[in-house]
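Quick entry, no commentary yet.
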Amino acid sequence: MAILETSLDPRASSYLDNRGLMSAALGEVETAIGEACEGGGEKQVTRHHARGKLLPRERIELLVDRDSAFLELSTLAGYGTGQPVGAAVVTGIGIIADRPCVITASDPTVRGGALNAYTVKKLARAAEIALVNKIPLVTLAESDGPDPAADGELLLAGGASLRDQALLRAAGVPAICAVFGVVSGGSLPALADQTILVRGQARVHLAGPHLVRAATGQIVDDESLGGATLHATRTGLADQLAEDERDAVRLVRQAVSRLCTMPAAAPRDVAPPRFDAEDLLAVARGDEAFDPREILGRVLDGSEFDEVAPLFGEGLCTGFGTVHGYRVGIVASARPVLGVDEVTKAARFVQLVTASRRPLVFLPNTSGFGIGVEHEGQGISVQAARLVDAIATSGTPMITIAVGAVHGPAGQALGGRSMRPRFLFSWPNARTAPLPPAQLPAIAAHRAAVDETGPAEGSTGRLSAESSALYRSGQLYDDGVIDPRDTRTVLGICLSVLQGAS
């Protein structure tokens, strides 16, 4: 392998300008993440603590192995929609008893943990990650059920969520559920392989006492209707009774050890990159072109990269490297437009990675495939279809980190959501749109010419705003917007999950 070099100069004006733009974008992301972490606000958090209960992130901190990382996912779900940022649930990947697990934790300080459409989408994504990677799903539940103000779509999505749990069981993926308060309107705990209820605190029922009284006239208290003792002694739902929340966390860890096999040992003696990750703040300028090797030099072990076909299709960088000891194939954009050479090169390289049975990492920054007479004459449409076919049928696990533009079919082909990557993250500067923003005025003018009413007022600006990483993450297009300096860590956690996964 060759050792990468760097041309970044911390004293250059371009370095300082890029760093300033990225820092500003990162500041917006951190503000939104802070809103999600505040839960239902100071008043609700204080009331929750006064009851002797833990917040969702506090439960997770106790649950995961000491000094291990927790990779939170979809933190910005609901951003820009009018719904609570974070969607009243925390999801992510953590190590429990030396085993990687997907963890979900209700946040009862946000409208009682009531489910909205983004909550259900976020939970569905967590279940999907557990299913495709064959790692345990651990649920820390406390929710009043669907938001009463939600529409019928939520009922359909909620049913799909229960179906996801059933599919996990059918696939042999362990599911463990601990109930810390009310779980109403669903059968999630009953579908888990192991269920832990907190004595005197947990309640599981289809409808609470008020609804039962309204529907049947029966007057019943919470404990008699669905309390922890009832489920431990009569229904058999509770496999374990916890004395308090900390005891419940202990029992969850015990259940993970009991149900799950040990994963393969992680690689050791890994050489760190030769260049400072701090420089990643200054590599990209918006979604303009830049040399992706500047990223690789700050992410790959020892900054070593085995580049494949460096003299052909130079608008795309392909090759092999290792991240925290895990060997991967890498496809990274070097120019915004993918011509025939770049598309051909990408398809051949994906086939090579598939044959090597290595994970594939995409670092897209592309405005689209080449268009026009010259590109079409060279067969761009045919080669683009072959690239999509190679990626869609490869079977190799993929991780995508959008480091710039992810526009149009080309952006989707290079590991976009439609290609079903195992994980998809974005840098704060990333933008995702059906068409490059530069083409939007021309499209609007064309539509105005054929439509007497003309384009909707402000549509171009709206489409541009909705292409931002913040907005897209709020819609759960990706698994989160990450600090560029954390790219190596995020990749390492994801690769550890893929290790041994089918």
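second:
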Amino acid sequence: MNKMLTVAAGVLVCCSAMVRAMDVETHCKENDETIYNVSKEFEEDYLFAGNELNFSGEAQDMVFLGKTLTYKGKTRLGLVAIGKKILFSGETGNGITAAGVNIVVDGNVSGNNYIGCKNFQLTERGAIDGDLFLGCAKGTVDGSFNGNLHVGAGELQINSVINGDVTAYGGRIRIGKKGKINGNLIYGAKEKLSVEELARVSGTVTVDDHHEFKSGDMLPKKMRKWVAVLFSIGMFLSFAVIGSLLLFLPVFRKLDAPQQERTFWYTSLWGLIPLLMYPAVVILSFALVVTIPFAVVLLFAFVPLFFTAYLIGTTLAGKYIAMKLRWNAGRRHLQFLIGAVAGVLLAIIPFINFLSGIFLLALGWGTFITFLFNTTVGDKRNIESSDTGIALPSDRDSYPG
């Protein structure tokens, strides 16, 4: 855990250096149970990574990575916190983004908030002026709330006035005697609200039952199997058709270049680097707050990039299989179909299907690297492969895989 915090803090420091100044304190030593007290006023952002922090200072933005945070200070902008226990009794000007086990809001929060935890409580002294997007096992609203509430919880208890609309889904939703919703309510739960509770909603009430599990609607076991088989066939045909159409694009002509066996394996190894880094970069971009627009762009690019990588990897795998079996498969469309069929056969084997998918994606991402740097991955000094006798491209060619 401490090593992970150290790495995360280091990456955050490097990324934030490109944006603006940030004061950083890291205390990620093994078995460090020190409680740090900070009351300094920071002109810029403040990042803390360690065990436990009592913060009563002031900063532009604050980022906390640790076990316990007791926050009595003030941020002119927002607070990002990841920890086991977070007690917020200060002020923030641009909302809270937090994840933890127990999160308590006992101070004044302005702006939109995004919170995921096991137990959440807005105390009687706490106040939220903004929207709250909450996911928790148990949530309690006892304090002032001016904004819209969007929540998914196992249990939600509303004991104060909410001046805004509420959208709530959970196992149990209750509106206490002191609770009131000055707005519209959309909810779905195993237990319906009572007449007395519905009277505490000033706007319209909509019961959404679409998310509920109903045993009577359950498909028979045999039918479920057939549905799963048909869905799998449909996914395979969709991938085959779309992939075949995309391979007509001129950019994929580079896949026709002869490949060397050693280069094939080097490509997959290099492709693991961007494949594993992609989700980490997305998470860090969201954590830095200021790079959220970049994170959103990466999320939208996720599907086309990974689909293209899988398409390229499948084609190169089919090309390799045809080369090893000495099949006459010179067209990339035929190579793609060979790789796709091989992927389907491997998908039948548990765990191997996951590894094969990672391998094909790594092949595609490795090809992206060769396109980006306009070079080859691996050794291409021999003009002919001693294993296959297939001619290789010259050093002037840019080989994608």
